[in-house]
Design brief:
It is a single chain. It contains six helices and eleven strands. The chain is α/β, with parallel strands linked by helices and about 250 residues long. The N and C termini lie far apart (about 55 Å). About 30% of the residues lie in helices and about 25% in strands. A hairpin with a 2-residue loop joins strand 8 and strand 9.
Length: about 250
């Protein structure tokens, strides 16, 4: 049973971003690109499942030439093959992403599990996994934070919000999305980095029409945060000032 892990190359959120002079995009010359953090959880869990399921792990990503660097990183971590869907401009529309990915996921033989990250940290979008499940006609479980495979079934725990967890049992084929806390992602070893250079990394094109891809007309940086307001006085005075502040300025009460 083969496993596919769609991944997204995203800007390192710990690095400052600069907008181009025409305000239509980010200055990529200053961007450090990394594997999406939630995709790391998905790939790590796929690597743990591989001995139980057998088969291979395929990673795939769509985007320009630079995406190959991230796919090479997934091969160094332990994936068996990588597929680069070559698209000149980055696609941010979830449905377009899902259509393009599903086109190539459908070509992977004996595909039993598609493991995605819960969301993309650059766009804060979490719709692609659900759309993939619909397009592939696979059952879907989101926000998976624990997983066990035994007797041919996945035994899953997912976060439902408000501290409530849901226990599920599902059989492949299946689409899952990984939440934070599912595992502790590994770092690539020197041996893994050397082996990655010899693993298959193919580049393919997409037949999907991309006229629906949104184009940004005017980007701007968030304004400077105002300095904090300190509250002085006795505890009773501080409480009164805080209540007045929430009522009058923040309109929260």
């Amino acid at each position: 049973m083969n496993i596919a892990v769609p991944v997204r190359q995203v800007p390192d959120t710990g690095q400052p971003l600069k907008i181009t002079d025409n305000t239509s995009s980010i200055d990529e010359s200053r961007v450090k690109w990394i594997l999406g953090p939630y995709d790391e959880f998905a790939l790590e869990e796929a690597l743990k499942l591989k001995p139980l399921l057998g088969g291979k792990i395929f990673t795939l990503s769509l985007g320009p030439e630079r995406v190959k660097e991230t796919l090479l990183h997934t091969l160094a971590l332990g994936a068996d093959e990588a597929i680069h869907i070559n698209i000149e401009k980055e696609v941010r529309d979830p449905l377009t992403c899902a259509k393009i990915l599903s086109e190539h996921l459908g070509k992977i033989p004996d595909l039993s599990l598609v493991f995605c990250g819960k969301l993309a940290v650059d766009t804060n979008d979490f719709a692609v996994p659900q759309m993939l499940a619909r397009l592939l006609d696979f059952p879907f479980v989101t926000n998976v934070n624990s997983l066990e495979f035994k007797e041919g079934n996945f035994h899953l725990t997912r976060e439902c919000g408000g501290g409530v967890e849901e226990l599920l049992k599902a059989s492949p084929p299946l689409v899952l999305s990984a939440d934070k806390g599912l595992n502790q992602p590994r770092y690539p070893s020197l041996q893994g980095i050397m082996k990655a250079k010899k693993k298959p990394l193919q580049t393919v094109s997409s037949t999907q029409v991309q006229d629906t891809v949104p184009r940004y007309l005017n980007l701007s940086s968030p304004g400077e945060k105002p300095p904090p307001e300190m509250i002085s006085g006795s505890p009773e005075e501080q409480i009164k000032k805080l209540i007045d502040f929430l009522k009058e300025k923040e309109k929260l009460l």
